[in-house]
Amino acid sequence: MTTTDPTTPRYPTSLGTSTATEINLLGHDLAGDLMGKVGFGELAFWLVAMRRPSPGELRVFESVLVALADHGFTPTAIAARVTYLSAPDSLQGAIAAGLLGGGSRFLGVTEDCGQFLHTALDTHEGPLPATEDEWDQMALDAIARQKKLGKHVPGLGHPNHKDGDPRTPVLIGIATEEGLRGPHLQLFEAIGRMSERGVGRALPLNGAGVCGAALADLGLPVELLRGFALLARCAGLLGQIAEERRNPIAHDIYMSVDRNAVYVDPDTDPTP
Ligand SMILES: CC(C)(COP(=O)(O)OP(=O)(O)OC[C@H]1O[C@@H](n2cnc3c(N)ncnc32)[C@H](O)[C@@H]1OP(=O)(O)O)[C@@H](O)C(=O)NCCC(=O)NCCSC(=O)C[C@@](O)(CC(=O)O)C(=O)O
Predict the structure, then answer these.
(1) Ligand 1 close to Cβ of residue 105 (< 6 A)
(2) Is the keyword Transferase in the record (predicted)?
(3) CB of 69 closer than 6 angstroms to any ligand 1 atom
(4) Closest ligand 1 atom to Cα of 107
């Protein structure tokens, strides 16, 4: 219903609206123009960027979603499975429990890394580096600032892929093929080259980090990058719950921890 009464509140949206017979999304007829014609990844990009991605952008974006969907028995997957054990009546509770674990150590780093690179680029005075040496110097400066804050460099290190995360070179390769290897990815690569000098040990550039760099190069808002990691992991967690139903492990996790619990007398425990 539309009204011209100035006292009636108005709530603007360019996303979804509906009448009794139509649903409109992003200015298109959802049923007639979008269903069966637009992929889910394309729609997710479009909903945030308010523009359709180019084919190259879509390839990079969907590669990110694929890269971050699942990585085995991560804290997010374990949290989802154990929550489902306790509340099988709440699929959404299990998925939410997993998503809540997307943070500064695992998964949420997609955004942290995008922000970290973006800040370094944004606060850089003068033109962007033109040579690998200049990128390396910029990376060293960014690492030093992070060290000064007493924080880990987001996007560096992985509990499994000590000698290199297989996702990283592939995503950089795809972005390069599509002409979308921009300053965030270039700085990220320099961070990798400089990790030994800057951090004191050679650490791999991880998948969560490279995804953040690639998404930032697509021009997606850095404040929302965690959302794309969660979107991807949502699909992975649904898969984890489906497998939990077919082939449960959560009860064994529970029993393993519970049956192997060791009582420590609080009066003799030396840890504060
Ligand atoms: C990732 C991990 C906790 C690994 O720990 P680790 O246990 O292997 O190594 P640590 O024992 O902590 O480190 C050994 C020594 O190197 C130092 N050191 C390590 N990293 C350092 C660093 N970045 N900056 C400076 N110093 C560092 C450390 O201080 C220690 O020094 P020291 O105490 O002197 O011995 C650690 O790197 C870290 O916090 N990284 C930053 C956050 C980050 O980028 N997270 C993304 C991880 S990927 C991801 O999220 C996707 C996902 O994994 C997730 C999922 O699905 O849930 C998937 O795959 O899809």
Answers:
(1) yes
(2) yes
(3) no
(4) 50
71-76, Cβ contacts within 8 angstroms, sequence gap of 24 or more: 71/207, 71/236, 74/101, 74/106, 74/107, 75/101, 75/106, 76/101, 76/102, 76/106, 76/107, 76/233, 76/236, 76/237
Residues 6+ apart with CB under 8 A from 181: 172, 175, 217
Residue 224 makes CB contacts below 8 A (sequence gap 6+) with 48, 111
Instruction: Say what the pLDDT of residue 4 is.
Output: 72
| Separation between Cα atoms, residue 47 and residue 226, nearest integer Å | 15
pLDDT at residue 266, as a whole number: 87
The residue count of the chain comes to: 272
Residue 74 backbone dihedrals phi, psi, to 5 degrees: -80, 170
93-116 mean pLDDT: 97
- CB-based contact 176:194 (threshold 8 Å): no
Residue type, 126: G
**Closest ligand 1 atom number to CA of residue 72:** 56
Q: What is the mean pLDDT of residues 235-244?
A: 98
CA-based R_g, the chain, Å: 22
Tell whether ligand 1 has an atom less than 6 A from the beta carbon of residue 154: yes
Distance (Å, whole) CA 66 – CA 174: 13
Is residue 152 in contact with ligand 1, taking CB distance under 6 Å? yes
- Structure pTM? 0.95
Tokens at residue 148, please? 């000064």
